[in-house]
Amino acid sequence: MQNELQEKFRLSVLSLLGVVSVLGITPFVFIRYFQGNVLAAIIDLILVLGIVTLVGYAVRTKKTRVVSWIVAVFINTGVYAIVLANGVDSVLWVYPVIASTFFMVKPIEALGINICLMVACVFLPNVFDVISLVSFLVTLLMVSVTTYVYASRSEKQLRLLESLNTVDELTGAFNRRALTSDIAQALAIAERKKTPYMLAILDLDHFKMVNDKYGHAVGDEVLKDLVAITTAKIRKYDRFYRFGGEEFVLMLPDIPNQQAFIHNLSTAIKKELKTPDGKEVTVSFGVASWVPGTTADSWLKNADDALYRAKANGRDCAIFSDD
């Protein structure tokens, strides 16, 4: 779920651009054709067809990052071509293109593309016999810088919103919303590539006693410590989620020896996770491996059933669903 909001935002911008290009540019295809400016009409037509095709590809494949980059370069190249073909009558199209670039790619990338366009505009023939080159470049720069500041702030706010949407506020682990999205993606990858995935539900043993004896503030610190210890023992692309209360979910792809990994993690937690007076806090594991036909519900149920057996088996142990 890491980039889901950004992808949805980019897809919205691309879809809007597709609508605007059809409604705003298509009439000029006919206007310029009937005015006898066939080259400009062809360029406009290529712009419309190119944008619509790329937007359609993005909607179908969800590859919004790549398509946004292609579209950004495409429309900047296209607006330069149309000004080159149509002269000063089309120079105002440069402004909306410069602004819209910032909504398709990262602000610093958009700024680089815009600078290339501005430098190229300096060499436009005949245009600056009518308008002032200095005024044109200054206004372009103002539009670019202003939009850059706005886009940068929007990107930061989007990252903050995504963090609030996917990260547990107390522990810093991913939350249940992120798990729902990630588990669907993991199942799709596993089915397509036959990647071996492991899902484990962790439950802190006798956690209520920790809260009762030391207070909820200490209990919260124990939860944070568990996340810190576990995160340090897994890989960057592995995922650790707070499932609710003192239950957590660990989802890992491609673990060669699952039992050894869980044993080592359990040992590390038992060694490092302590109460204020130095007593061990242990964890029970219920582990389920992905098998063909697994669904999100069945995967979680298999792990939960294994966790129940681990609790019944005396806690501080790991039970695998295929045991």
TrEMBL record:
The UniProt keyword set, sorted, is: Membrane, Transmembrane, Transmembrane helix
The record lists the membrane-crossing segments as 12-33, 39-59, 66-85, 97-123, 130-151
Q: Which reaction does it catalyse?
A: 2 GTP = 3',3'-c-di-GMP + 2 diphosphate
Family annotation (InterPro entries)? Diguanylate_Cyclase, GGDEF_dom, Nucleotide_cyclase, Rev_trsase/Diguanyl_cyclase
Question: Cross-referenced SUPFAM superfamilies, in alphabetical order?
Answer: Nucleotide cyclase (SSF55073)
Q: Which residues form the GGDEF domain?
A: 195-323
GO MF annotations, alphabetized? diguanylate cyclase activity
Against Gene3D superfamilies, the record matches this protein to: 3.30.70.270
Pfam families, A to Z: GGDEF
- EC number(s) reported in the record: 2.7.7.65
Q: Which PROSITE patterns match?
A: GGDEF
Q: Does the keyword Transmembrane apply?
A: yes
Q: Where is the signal peptide?
A: none
Q: What is this protein called?
A: diguanylate cyclase
Q: Which domain of life is it from?
A: Bacteria
Cofactor(s), names only, from the UniProt record: Mg(2+)
